[in-house]
Amino acid sequence: MSDFLPEKNSNNVLTFSSDASLSHGGEHIILSDSAELDSFLLHRLLPVSKSLGFCSIHIIPADYAPAGRGDFLKKFSSGFPEGLEYLSKNQDVRDHPEMILEKAKSVISVALSYHSRNIDDSPDTACISAYAVGRDYHKVIKQRLDRLSHTLKEFFPDIHCRAITDSAPFYEQHFAAASLLTYRGLNGLVRTADAGCMVFLGELLVDIELTPPDTITCFIPINARHETISGQENLSGETEYRIVRIPAVQHADREKEKIPDIPEKLVKPCPPACRNCLRHCPTSALSADGFNPSKCISYLTIEYGGIIPQEYWKAIGNHLYGCDNCQIYCPFNKHVQVKGDQEFTSRFNQDFLQVGSLLNLTSGDFKKYFAGTAVYRIGYYRLMRNLTVVAANSGNSEHIPKLKKLLDLCEYWQNRINNTSAVSKECTGSQPAEKDRPIDSAGCLPAPTEKELAVLFFHVKKALAILNQHE
């Protein structure tokens, strides 16, 4: 396969040589007028971003945002499920990043790998999504983007920046997929050239133009080639890069907008015959008809706080928190060259993830082991709700005694709610005696909300009914 060989013509416009694998017959890419800026981006910003572990970086004009509205609304064409209603708000902010950072001009889009292929199908071992087993990615990416902003301030002392990662209304997938080195796959996730789609996305908004108007700045290895499923031809290991700028328009909009064609992406699209992510979606949330978020295991076990519909219990299997099936079975994730960042190495060994062990988990244990991870935000009672489903699916009747203790906990809180109107919703110094506190070795058991209690009560009783049938 021919190398990617950009060259300058007499008008100082970067083109592709006629024998290049990505050639489009001389159709042009816009160059920056500022050699000094390009030198800074290529020889300072890019190396710093690589040293911070980012496996992908490109720069997009902030006014590229409105083009992302269509895909966002299509994803929720059937409405916003319970727990995701907040996504229906602040649409104006999504369309106008300058409402996030005043006078925002450019967006630096980055990706950070958490790649992992650890799969345990044992019904008695709980499975936590790979993104959540290490340090909370929100903190990691924000800290690294803040360090990237310090590099910018060395060159632009008056620049203002704001780092975001799921922390503001923003079309992050839309911006992340804009590069020649990224692609949004059939599973709806952004895939990078050398790290696959098990990546976290982050953005640094800045109030200066780091890319010319209506162009996207990409950093391309000089001899970049198409990515292949086998992973033998990839973009990793390259040390020399070139700035390539393309019109800021989505590939799907070329015909509609009637603009000159732009180079093919350096990341191959999903093979037409590949339907791995659809076939391996346990609940068929991913299908040929699109994505139904309300059926997704990640939604059901993380965002949704209600009673999990019985029709999805068996499909959930041993998924305690989230689901990685549409990534694990993606062929582009099999031979990635950029491994997962060490910050996201799992904190949990297989013994800890045994269902019988987790059923002993107290609220104090939950804080001890999950604080600082993404799991912590769903809270103790929702995690235990999920665990009852996993326990029921295990078919192991040995879990019955521990589920009964969990039922005792529910009854304990129900009695407290019924007997007093002054139940504290926070830990206080007047907790009941140790002997009166079921499953509370920490000595401090925050009260569940009435909804949390009702939901957990239902799940424990249902799990017990299922396991009793196995005896």
Verbal overview:
- Helix 1 packs antiparallel against helix 4 (137-155), helix 13 (379-394) packs parallel to helix 15 and helix 14 runs antiparallel to helix 15.
- Helices cover 30% and strands 13% of the residues.
- A hairpin with a 5-residue loop joins strand 1 and strand 2.
- The strands form five sheets. A six-stranded antiparallel sheet has the order 6-9-4-3-10-11.
- The protein is built from 15 helices and 14 strands.
- It is elongated and about 75 Å long.
- It is of the alpha+beta class and 471 residues long.
- Residues 1-32, 227-238, 254-259, 421-437 and 439-443 have low confidence and may be disordered.
- The N and C termini lie far apart (62 Å).
Radius of gyration: 25 Å
- State the secondary-structure class: alpha+beta
Mean pLDDT: 83
> How much strand content do the residues show?
5-15%
State the order of secondary-structure elements, H for helix, E for strand.
EEHEHHEEHEHEEEEEHHEEHHEHHHHHH
Q: What are the segments in which pLDDT stays under 50 over at least 5 consecutive residues? A: 1-32, 227-238, 254-259, 421-437, 439-443
Number of strands: 14
Count the helices. How many? 15
Number of domains: 2
Largest sheet: 6 strands, antiparallel
Task: Describe the strand arrangement of the main beta sheet, using strand numbers.
Answer: 6-9-4-3-10-11
Instruction: State the distance separating the first and last CA atoms.
Output: 62 Å
Shape call: elongated
Helix content: 25-40%
